Amino acid sequence: VLEEDHVLVLDVYDFPHRVVVHRVGSWGINIFAVQSTSIINNQIGQQLLASLTIFALVVLVTVVVGIYFGFTLARPLIKITNATAVIAKGDLSVNTDQLEINRQDEYGDLSFSFVKMIQTLTEIIDKVKYSSVQVAASANQVASTSEEVNALSEEIAATVQQITHASSRQSEYA
After folding, report:
1. What are the pLDDT digits (tens) for 65-84?
2. H-helix or E-strand containing 74?
3. For a designed S-S bond to 107, which of 29, 33, 76, 102 qualifies (C-beta 3.0 to 4.6 A apart)?
4. How many CB atoms within 10 Å of residue 25?
């Protein structure tokens, strides 16, 4: 009586066969199956080929999906990096519409902050330009006032000299 499955391989006149004996339940019934080993080897080869094909397809799909997600994740970062290079050269005329990334992740946060930084820098530069114009106007006004004061000083000096000259003449006549 068999207690478990047994596999026997028999070579009968150069025609190898595989005999499988299965015990069914506790009733003592045994089932015998005979298969040619060449058929079994052929089936194993087909299964191996199918497994390798599926593995190759899985690898191909994984690579394609990886490349797609790689470009999807890298594209916003490349845009911001290119804009940073332009700004580093002193050009704040970057088109911020292209930098706005409508995503609810770190890339979206980075894009929002970057656009805000460009706007803030532009406002600061505009204020500095306005202040420099005001300083230039004030400097011109100070220069003209200084010229007026200088002219008045020369007038006063001339008047004092005339008074001194007139006074010394009166002293001579007196």
Report:
1. 999 998 888 888 888 888 88
2. helix 37-88
3. 76
4. 6
77-86's contacts with Cβ under 8 Å and 24+ in sequence apart are: 77/107, 77/110, 80/110, 80/111, 80/114, 83/114, 83/118, 84/114
For residue 5, give every residue at least 6 positions away whose Cβ sits within 8 Å of its Cβ, in sequence order, or none: 20, 21, 22, 23
pLDDT tens string 23-79: 555 665 555 566 666 777 788 899 999 999 999 999 999 999 999 998 888 888 888
Residues 37/17, Cβ–Cβ less than 8 Å: yes
Structure tokens at 64: 């394609």
HEC readout, 89-148: CCCCCCCHHHHCCCCCCHHHHHHHHHHHHHHHHHHHHHHHHHHHHHHHHHHHHHHHHHHH
Report the 10 Å Cβ neighbour count for 5: 11
